[in-house]
Design goal:
With 309 residues, the protein is an alpha/beta fold. The protein has helices at 40-52, 58-68, 92-98, 112-120, 158-167, 188-204, 209-236, 240-245, 256-267, 277-286; strands at residues 17-20, 25-28, 82-86, 103-107, 126-130, 143-149, 169-178, 289-294, 302-307. It is globular. Bound molecules: S-adenosylmethionine (SAM). The site of S-adenosylmethionine has 23 residues, from helix 1 and helix 3.
Length: 309
């Protein structure tokens, strides 16, 4: 077993507060600045979302994790790697990597950080901090590996946030990101659906919390599920190509729990941005990464790059 104290580094500032979680201490740093790049209403909404969807089963995390991390091999993450999960939410992806990595710092500005402490419970090689991309509480060039999964598209200036993340990676280390894609290779029909969804999202995300969760559950049941079931049935009939051409085909292999969670994620969040492959490559390069690889597989798009000088 690796002695993780030889991997971890001290914070570069004193926490404002240290809160006792269910299992570990949670270090809270300042998330409010004059020139900040954060949407506090989005963060609050995620805090509530992750309280509702806190109990991911290991097999669910494992199944989805294999899809998210198909471009991460042992050269990038191994038992000597010091990593950081920026915007960890419930900590499900931190949890997925904990058996493969040396030590992980998990940070999130929302109350989700307490949920992450519960989900990950007794694991030793992780530390939780309440912090945002505006103030990642470590010196620059600290980490061998950083990741930010489904986070940076919910921040007003995605490029600036990514640059802040990449600053914390050592030269020769890696940064992994998942950002919503802009449906660039999809038909006009898909793009039309997306603009409709964006319109509905504006309304739903402004509802009071309880109503918002209820409406998102209705959307999951009456909009997502019929399309998903049509896809599953088509596959059953052998019409695989047709099934994959349907909207929401990603969910044909996912549980209802994941569908409900993602419906809330998609419709309950007021700020979401979408990017093309070339925009993601350009952003990553601008942030200081090279050798950018964007996975050809779902979920679209997840990418990794190597930090250069
Ligand atoms: C869609 S969730 C993704 C959570 C997790 N990475 C996952 O995939 O399960 C987005 C997360 O980003 C966090 N977030 C929002 N703004 C942020 C910021 N400025 N800095 C860091 N995290 C932020 C939210 O609190 C939320 O937990």
């Amino acid at each position: 077993m690796i002695d993780t104290s030889s991997i971890t580094k001290n914070f570069n500032q004193i926490p404002l507060q240290t809160v006792k979680g269910n299992f570990k201490e949670i270090f809270c740093f300042n998330t409010e600045f004059e020139e900040e790049n954060i949407d506090h209403s989005v963060v609050e909404s995620f805090g509530e979302e992750w309280k509702k969807f806190a109990s991911f089963e290991d097999k669910e995390i494992d199944k989805l994790g294999k899809m998210y991390f198909d471009i991460i091999d042992e050269n990038i993450v191994n038992k000597n790697t010091y990593g950081i999960d920026i915007g960890c939410g419930t900590g499900r992806w931190t949890k997925y990597l904990l058996d493969k990595i040396g030590f992980m710092e998990a940070i999130d500005p929302s109350e989700a950080i307490y949920t992450a402490d519960k989900l990950i419970a007794e694991k030793e090689n992780v530390r939780f901090s309440r912090a945002s991309t505006d103030n990642i509480p470590f010196e620059d060039e600290t980490f061998d590996f950083g990741m930010s999964i489904g986070v940076l598209h919910h921040i007003p200036d995605t490029q600036k946030a990514m640059t802040n993340c990449v600053k914390k990676i050592k030269k020769g280390g890696y940064f992994y990101v998942y950002l919503y894609y802009n449906l660039e290779d999809r038909s006009a029909f898909f793009k039309f659906i997306l603009s409709l969804v964006s319109l509905i999202r504006k309304v739903v995300s402004s509802l009071p919390s309880v109503l918002k969760k209820f409406v998102c559950d209705l959307i999951a049941i009456f909009i997502y599920m019929p399309v998903i079931l049509l896809g599953r049935f088509s596959k059953f009939l052998g019409l695989k190509k047709f099934a994959l051409s349907l909207p929401l085909s990603f969910y044909q292999n996912q549980s209802f729990f994941v569908v409900r969670n993602d419906a809330l994620d998609r419709f309950g969040t007021s700020l979401e941005q979408r990017f093309s492959r070339s925009e993601i490559t350009e952003m990553m390069q601008k942030a200081g990464l090279s050798e950018v690889v964007i996975s050809p597989n779902e979920p679209y798009y997840h990418a990794v790059g190597k930090k250069i000088n």
